[in-house]
Amino acid sequence: MEKKTSLIQGFKTVLPAIILTAIISLIIFILSLLGKNSTYFVFWGEVSNQIPADIAANFIRSTDNFNWTFIVIFAIIIYIYGTELKNKNYKGIVAGLALYGVHWLYEIVNAIIHSQSGYALWTVSPESTSFILLIGVSWELSMMFAIAGLAMSKLLPEDPKKRFFGINNRVLFAIMNAAFFAIFEIFLAGTPAFIWTYSWWGAIPVFITTYIPFFLAAFIVPYKPVKTQKLFLSITWGLVALLLIILIPLGVI
Known about the structure:
The strands form 3 sheets. The protein has a two-stranded antiparallel ribbon. A two-stranded antiparallel ribbon has the order 2-3. Strand 4 and strand 5 (167-168) form a beta hairpin. It has 8 helices and 6 strands; from the N terminus they run H-H-H-H-E-E-E-H-E-E-H-E-H-H. It is mainly alpha-helical. Helix 1 (2-34) runs parallel beside helix 6 (169-188), helix 4 (90-117) packs antiparallel against helix 7 (203-220) and helix 6 packs antiparallel against helix 7 (203-220). It has one domain (2-250).
């Protein structure tokens, strides 16, 4: 009986977050109906995008488009993390590394999908970058994700237990940040820089299955015990390193 009561209470705790996620998804769906003929915003993938996706696949880790912005951006990221380290903002650093590590796992899975099915869920074009790391991530995009968790964690309330509308503020901010990034991706998908090829993949699955986990990692892990933080980062980044070391030489990704 106690176990059943505990499950019911747990469900009631997460229900507001589920409802908010459903409402945002519904709003995005309605926007997709209203903007289906838009030339600036793309809500779902299209088969016609397979042609530029095929071209992009030939430029993975090619240096043809390399330029010196690569070095400048990397220097800026080092400066940002160095400053945060000097200021002893360890929670912010953990937030950044947690999101970035999860991001890399997603990019690896996306690259595996590309190698197995012929097309990734998302693809970056060679014209938009100085270097394509994996089929779905350019150097510039990767460096953005390197600091996304750190940057957005600065907006969090001081109290990690505070609730808004019945939702823990970390979870609420994760959902809202995910919505912002997903909606912005609607614009990116309407440019030649970012490509969706599957008709069932678009803003809604990106919001729910990709960005919410990104920001949950960034906003929850830093407030766990230090041992848990280290374990999460060790497992995440260890798995990333192992997969890259194995799959790149094999030509899988």
